[in-house]
Amino acid sequence: xxxxxxxxxxxxxxxxxxxxxxxxxxxxxxxxxxxxxxxxxxxxxxxxxxxxxxxxxxxxxxxxxxxxxxxxxxxxxxxxxxxxxxxxxxxxxxxxxxxxxxxxxxxxxxxxxxxxxxxxxxxxxxxxxxxxxxxxxxxxxxxxxxxxxxxxxxxxxxxxxxxxxxxxxxxxxxxxxxxxxxxxxxxxxxxxxxxxxxxxxxxxxxxxxxxxxxxxxxxxxxxxxxxxxxxxxxxxxxxxxxxxxxxxxxxxxxxxxxxxxxxxxxxxxxxxxxxxxxxxxxxxxxxxxxxxxxxxxxxxxxxxxxxxxxxxxxxxxxxxxxxxxxxxxxxxxxxxxxxxxxxxxxxxxxxxxxxxxxxxxxxxxxxxxxxxxxxxxxxxxxxxxxxxxxxxxxxxxxxxxxxxxxxxxxxxxxxxxxxxxxxxxxxxxxxxxxxxxxxxxxxxxxxxxxxxxxxxxxxxxxxxxxxxxxxxxxxxxxxxxxxxxxxxxxxxxxxxxxxxxxxxxxxxxxxxxxxxxxxxxxxxxxxxxxxxxxxxxxxxxxxxxxxxxxxxxxxxxxxxxxxxxxxxxxxxxxxxxxxxxxxxxxxxxxxxxxxxxxxxxxxxxxxxxxxxxxxxxxxxxxxxxxxxxxxxxxxxxxxxxxxxxxxxxxxxxxxxxxxxxxxxxxxxxxxxxxxxxxxxxxxxxxxxxxxxxxxxxxxxxxxxxxxxxxxxxxxxxxxxxxxxxxxxxxxxxxxxxxxxxxxxxxxxxxxxxxxxxxxxxxxxxxxxxxxxxxxxxxxxxxxxxxxxxxxxxxxxxxxxxxxxxxxxxxxxxxxxxxxxxxxxxxxxxxxxxxxxxxxxxxxxxxxxxxxxxxxxxxxxxxxxxxxxxxxxxxxxxxxxxxxxxxxxxxxxxxxxxxxxxxxxxxxxxxxxxxxxxxxxxxxxxxxxxxxxxxxxxxxxxxxxxxxxxxxxxxxxxxxxxxxxxxxxxxxxxxxxxxxxxxxxxxxxxxxxxxxxxxxxxxxxxxxxxxxxxxxxxxxxxxxxxxxxxxxxxxxxxxxxxxxxxxxxxxxxxxxxxxxxxxxxxxxxxxxxxxxxxxxxxxxxxxxxxxxxxxxxxxxxxxxxxxxxxxxxxxxxxxxxxxxxxxxxxxxxxxxxxxxxxxxxxxxxxxxxxxxxxxxxxxxxxxxxxxxxxxxxxxxxxxxxxxxxxxxxxxxxxxxxxxxxxxxxxxxxxxxxxxxxxxxxxxxxxxxxxxxxxxxxxxxxxxxxxxxxxxxxxxxxxxxxxxxxxxxxxxxxxxxxxxxxxxxxxxxxxxxxxxxxxxxxxxxxxxxxxxxxxxxxxxxxxxxxxxxxxxxxxxxxxxxxxxxxxxxxxxxxxxxxxxxxxxxxxxxxxxxxxxxxxxxxxxxxxxxxxxxxxxxxxxxxxxxxxxxxx
Length: 1413
Known about the structure:
Layout: E1 14-15, E2 21-29, E3 40-44, E4 50-55, E5 61-66, E6 74-75, E7 77-83, E8 90-96, E9 102-107, E10 119-125, E11 133-139, E12 149-151, H1 160-163, E13 170-172, E14 183-188, E15 194-201, E16 217-222, E17 227-233, H2 265-284, H3 289-294, H4 296-305, E18 308-310, H5 315-348, E19 374-376, E20 381-384, E21 389-392, H6 401-419, H7 425-428, E22 435-439, E23 443-447, E24 449-450, H8 456-459, H9 466-473, E25 476-483, H10 490-504, E26 512-518, E27 526-527, E28 547-548, H11 551-563, H12 574-595, E29 602-609, H13 617-624, E30 632-637, H14 640-645, E31 656-659, H15 676-679, H16 682-685, E32 688-689, E33 693-695, E34 700-711, E35 714-724, H17 725-734, E36 742-746, E37 752-754, H18 771-774, E38 777-778, H19 780-790, E39 794-805, E40 814-827, E41 834-840, H20 841-844, E42 847-849, E43 901-904, H21 912-917, H22 922-929, H23 952-962, H24 972-982, E44 986-993, E45 997-1001, H25 1016-1023, E46 1025-1028, E47 1031-1034, E48 1037-1038, E49 1042-1043, E50 1050-1059, E51 1069-1078, H26 1081-1086, E52 1097-1102, E53 1107-1109, H27 1112-1115, ...
């Protein structure tokens, strides 16, 4: 049976000689399945030219005939584009001549776009491998008092009685059972909740399983977001089935009051304070379970006694050091580009002999590397580092075969340089990423070789890509004028629109653009955004300014071009349209002069017209001279006769005018950048950095070092070398030795390249952010920004307020702190960037351990060190199996003898990004486990090319823990092992240092990207610094309960910071020691004194008012991250009324969310009365733990509290809560709500005007090797899949006979935001189970929960391997990386969708970068 997916030939896709071929297209309505007549069909070839058009018949049939060609080169692959009024434009690519004679395409009708109605439509389609796929949608209830509803082919609507809604707003339209689909589910006015969507093979139990032939695809369309939000293709691999039950939770209290005779409020407060004091000693004291198990005194003593050296620094010195490191990293890529440029130019001018491209094994149009490619973590995919891809644009012979052959020779030579075995760039410098070249005849070389299909050989033309165009033009402002009159035929009009879209496809993120449709005389031209009054997806601001080409704005302009139609006028008033465009260019010039005067750009007006121009030559002359200097004008006429007729008026003022045939409309207009005005400055610009964009293969944010190639003064092509932002700023990202100081990088326009308030660069998915939005402090804009952006060097002291993380950014919230800091800034030599640092007083006076840090270092005592991955072997003279406690060896991944293992995070290496990108080996494990500084720096191993060396700091930390003062092997292991041996409630003990060391007992495998300093327990411990008069120190912290990943049940983590040079809080933090203990052990400790009396309820709360311990947790499963108001609304109200419970709000710029959280504060005991009994709150010692004691059974009897649910976390409630104050709008939990991104102002609406600080960034994702036989790093960041994520979660069902595995990084399920989003926690709306065993529901709770202190791990033995979900991020299409402006989608209901096109950085650059000679 033929598969509908692409059927590709095993030969190049351009061949000689073909007869005509008819593509029979069947056009159907995606909602009803009925045929659509009157749809306009167009067939587009590989060169982006329209070769055939047709209109669908009454039966929906549309015949598109690919023309014959008897000589020369003929295209094989085509794309069908279907459009009809009232429907969204849809296309189907990959149609192959001679193969795909019959194809079905579904159109989705235009959804509602009114302000008061929002509609989402989920469309399932598939191929002809299985006849019937069924869709299932789990609709959450409106609130916690109602039930969820399941939609499927049997139940096609949800009644209001189930959901608590006024009308049934959810329905499934069609049950398609005869192949292809569609099956459509419509959601009108969606409410907040988790919407789970499943795809099921009907009859799948009869041996049918998920494989690539099914070609399932799920699309989500939005009415108020103007079209398709995203498309989720069938994943390559499938997750195992999950077991899920219903989660029921309510805020109501229905009970009879039973109060304890507490002797009055005063007596109850005294009893509570006494109980808290006893708890402090029992939990955290030297003899308490936490103090004993952590051996906190022993660890602190070791670091107090270790010898130290002064490590003080200044802000300017800090900035200079980091700037030098970044400059060096960038210069390495410039050197590579220079080497390739020189080699290419030597071949062109005859200095060097060219290779014979047709005898070279790689000199052919070849893409697939099924057998030669292996997985490379550095590229997040399968590549061949010893080879490259060679591709030819569909118009590769435009300048004659001789020049194409010369360009091919140059491309082959450059490919050889990059991949030449041990001398190739990838071997000499393993941190090298994508390297590529494009030529003026369309030849493209890309290294390393990567998987793809043969259709890519001719579907990719470098000359119409942003990176290539930007090399010619630099920064540019582009006005596109399209003739919208009725003077031209439909085919001519479509060709002009195709030309406009081709131009938009060349724009880089540093460019601006707008599109104007010319109408008849006296009719106002249409500008993008002009329909803002009737279509809320547009904004008024888009009509009166140029739009920076972020992916959002580029998508908006493409959609505007798609949606505009012809009018009935006989001629277009081109003059009026150009006049509008010239005005927009004038506005842009004024804005640029006021905001970034040091960045230059060029202006161009491109006219695509098929009618006469209706004005005189003098009128056009006056119009063009209105801008000084003048913008370049380009005219492409679709009609040769009219071009000739009008050459005397409009044409005479054009810098270029030409007839453009319909077959060339997708190419010639996009070559505007070859105008003399652009070429005149290209040599002066030299090698430069392109605008930032998001790499399709998963490398995150990148820039390209771009080098034009010359011959006799003419540009022959362009070389590109990708530089990831992570590579540039890794020293900033991974250097965690400072507690409160940090650095950031911006461009000349103040756009953030990286800042610690943003995710790690490889995880950045949000739109551009301005530095002034992240740095909210008195004097920053006045004293720091001018010098920072102008590229000068300077320092300034300012008072800065910050939102400081108290632990996990999702749950634990943040604390607001204000301090005086020193800013320092300077330009980064050889780059277009500037670096800024923020240095606090406590970090300026640093202490580091000396090398060695102990009085007598005995290297012999260090011979036996256990490495965290026992599979890599040890140097202890015993086999790995001897370390395993056989009685407990069934526990996967953990080794339960009483020995600790060493692990070094990426920050412990001089090349942290290189360490992350390369697999650990036995050789590496051996040298790491033997590393010490007893003999000075010679004991620090160099890990090999690209991996860097271990730093002295983490090695010295390890020595302090392992050796006694005299060098004897008196390690901390002895203390830890004794505690674990004597107390069965102690499970794991560990220490994470500020320098990157991590020790863990018992030994366990740690994900390679694990960084203790970014985990909840570490950040919370460092943040818990207390002061009492002249005394100060670090208190203990305690987490809420969670389920241990290794089967140890429910646990809590206790942690405390230790300092170097003594216990004084003024000394720098050396690290944090922590212990995991069984949750069940808390009951016996807490239930003493007044807390052991009948008719009393005692709870332990963390500083965010989440419940650590509640008596109900003992008899039932303990819920993680349960907020106080969820279980006792009245007590929460009482704490608010006495200002003991307050709110904080910040903006998360990683995904545009306003986040609110709660803080508990009570230095002395406080209390009050409730409708049933009294309450009292007392802090437990110096720990960030509070005892809340109720002198009753916890019942609520007050009429205004009884049977009242907390307010749900909706977008409106979230926004109102943050602005009105918490007392009137208490929510059930901390809340997050999405904001709209303003594509005009390039900032989040409702964001920073100094009102809200930037939220702390979430910890980076973790890599983990999930499959023992598969040496591939997988994404282990399951935080996004935790309970409470609000959105549609697309999951393809589990396979009955296919290989099961976790999805590769960046290939996760997509999710569309529905509105507000509670901070993930247990109490959530009910979600029903999947309807059949073949179906997999996205887990509502984390899959495997935690390893030490909150490392989340998936269950690997006998459980589920969940499909990870990334909030608000769609997935890039797998396959070839597309250099410079790659597909990346981001979706959010209640947010602006990020669509295909070039991503960020929104910088007004392309930059005026330095010239390299």
